[in-house]
Specification:
3 domains; Dipeptide-binding Protein, domain 1; alpha+beta; about 525 residues; D-Maltodextrin-Binding Protein, domain 2; transport; signal; Peptide/Ni-bd; single chain; ABC-type dipeptide transport system, periplasmic component; peptide transmembrane transporter activity; globular; Dipeptide-binding Protein, domain 3
């Protein structure tokens, strides 16, 4: 299969016109300096749909467009298009001054009219870019934009960082496959699910890319490794279980991320919800089960078995995030976990190694996303580890459409955003059943709801962060979610390709976040 894949790859290169990167030989240093590279970094980079008004850029980096604000060093918000901004004391009015040197890839100046058009268009669409709190947006002049909110919403600055600015004069229904933003890169050629060729935006106001051309290919793992071994790829995303593969001329590059693998543990008994679907779970609805899992599992061992050790164990939102409380505790407390279960009436009366209570076995079906091997492997490793507690987990690989909609079954989710609104979406009772990410644990705690309400209404980030942290501490007692590990994203990188640190935790983005600072890459 590997030989066939490698052959097909060669044919693909010939068919799409990709050639090895052009080299300039430095005779004095006898070194090769490239101004073109070829990479393969997951499926999403070549999936199309690069339209910020439809949600592109919310979950992963958008290298085509500028943003008013961006999450930069130390996971703090910083100005991008914004030269300055002001928030009214009531938290309802945001006034932005934008820089005057921003241009789209066609040379057309970016003005406040483009900002207004972008946010009005985004608001009119139902997408991951949530602007339900926005009442109006107005251009006072060419460089001044005013956002008016319906109610105070402290995470609004993060909402602004998620929406790239599109050109009013060039936007149309096919824009998603032919973006023309004011970011560092522009699309030179695109074939959906095959290849994406990028060249620098010569009008970009920031640091200009060092490479004249970047070719991004969609390849399966076998073909990608074959291409890397033959010297055709300069960077390739690899699953953690293959990360130690030796490829001549390439080195392992690990990228930490804020995303965590988290299992939702439905907190209510099984029932039928208002939409006629099953919700809740008769095993995980018992607090004792959730508490025992939380303190009894060995996260480090699970990380080693599931991810080949490429990850950091986690107990909640990444401590590096300004709004996280960074809670950490000792796990693998097996005897203490067993006592919690015994005291709650979970006993193995028939000697089969699985506890039961009121004729209900401590048996939990947990799904793992079928197109994300790392998630499924984590569920498998968790299942092996919890046997020591007398709990049986049955791993199931399933398509994401099935996983995310089964509110009666735990599944392996990916939690991790710089925006604290994530805590609201997963822990606030008002979010139960909302869209596909609304509180999949069916968790209700009036005290937590009250603190979240205070965080949302706060008029400065310090006040909001205090409430977000308080909410996390309260919710952790109820264990609606089992936080396990933040996987490292692993790549093989050609020797000579220099990739500077982002100096922050990016989202995992199934591998594509590596390109966030691609304009700073060099050879």
């Amino acid at each position: 299969m590997r030989k066939i894949a490698a052959f097909l790859l060669v044919m693909m290169f010939l068919a799409v016109g990709c050639s090895p990167s052009k080299n300039v030989i430095n005779a004095e240093k006898e070194a090769v300096v490239k101004d073109e590279i070829v990479i393969s970094a997951g499926v999403n980079l070549v999936a199309g749909g690069f339209d910020p008004t439809a949600g592109y850029g919310v979950w992963a980096p958008d290298i085509f467009h500028s943003h008013l604000l961006q999450v930069k060093e130390n996971n703090q918000l910083a100005n991008d298009l914004a030269a300055s901004y002001d928030i009214s004391t009531d938290g309802l009015t945001y006034t932005f001054k934008i820089r005057d040197d921003a241009k789209f890839a066609d040379g057309h100046p970016l003005t406040s009219e483009d900002v207004v058009f972008t946010f009005e268009t985004t608001k009119s669409k139902a997408s991951a870019a949530d602007l339900t709190m926005l009442d109006s947006v107005e251009a006072l002049d060419a460089s001044t934009v005013v956002f008016q909110l319906k109610y105070p919403w402290s995470p609004f600055v993060f909402n602004l960082s998620e929406v790239g600015i599109v050109p009013k004069h060039a936007y149309n229904e096919t824009y998603g496959d032919h973006p023309m933003g004011s970011g560092a890169w522009q699309v030179a050629e695109f074939a959906i699910d095959q290849k994406l060729i990028l060249v620098p935006n010569e009008h970009y106001y920031g640091a200009m890319p060092k490479f004249k051309k970047v070719t991004i290919l969609k390849l399966d793992e076998d073909a990608a490794l074959a291409a890397a071994k033959s010297g055709q790829l300069d960077l390739v995303l690899v699953e953690s279980e293959f990360a130690n593969t030796q490829v001549e001329g390439m080195k392992l590059y690990k990228m930490s991320a804020m995303d965590a693998f988290v299992i939702n543990l439905p907190t209510i008994p099984e029932t039928i919800d208002s939409s006629g679907k099953k919700a809740g779970n008769n095993v995980t609805s018992d607090l004792a089960i959730r508490q025992a899992l939380n303190i009894g599992i060995n996260r480090q061992l699970i990380t080693q078995n599931a991810l080949n050790g490429f990850g950091q164990v986690t107990y909640g939102a990444a401590a590096e995030l300004p709004w996280s409380n960074g809670d950490k505790f000792e796990d693998n407390r097996v005897e203490e976990a067993k006592k919690i279960l015994e005291d709650a009436g979970w006993k193995d009366t028939d000697g089969d190694g699985i506890r039961e209570k009121n004729n209900v076995k401590a048996e939990i079906l947990i799904t793992g996303r079928s197109n994300d091997l790392a998630r499924y492997n984590t569920v498998v490793a968790l299942a092996e580890d919890v046997k020591k507690l007398g709990i049986q987990i049955i791993p199931k690989s399933a398509p994401w459409s099935e996983c995310r909609d089964a509110r009666n079954l735990p599944t392996c989710w990916v939690f991790g955003q710089p925006n604290p609104i994530e805590f609201y979406r997963y822990y606030d009772s008002s979010q139960i059943g909302v869209a596909v990410i609304g509180n999949p644990a069916s968790y209700t705690n009036p005290e937590v709801d009250g603190v979240i309400k205070k965080a949302l209404a706060a008029t400065n980030s310090d006040e909001a962060n205090k409430y977000w942290q308080e909410g996390q501490a309260l919710a952790q007692r109820d264990v609606p979610y089992l936080w396990i590990v933040r996987p490292e994203v692993t790549y093989l990188v050609r020797e000579g390709l220099e990739i500077p640190s982002l100096k922050k935790l990016p989202t995992r983005g199934q591998g594509i976040s590596i390109v966030e600072n691609m304009n700073d890459w060099s050879w």
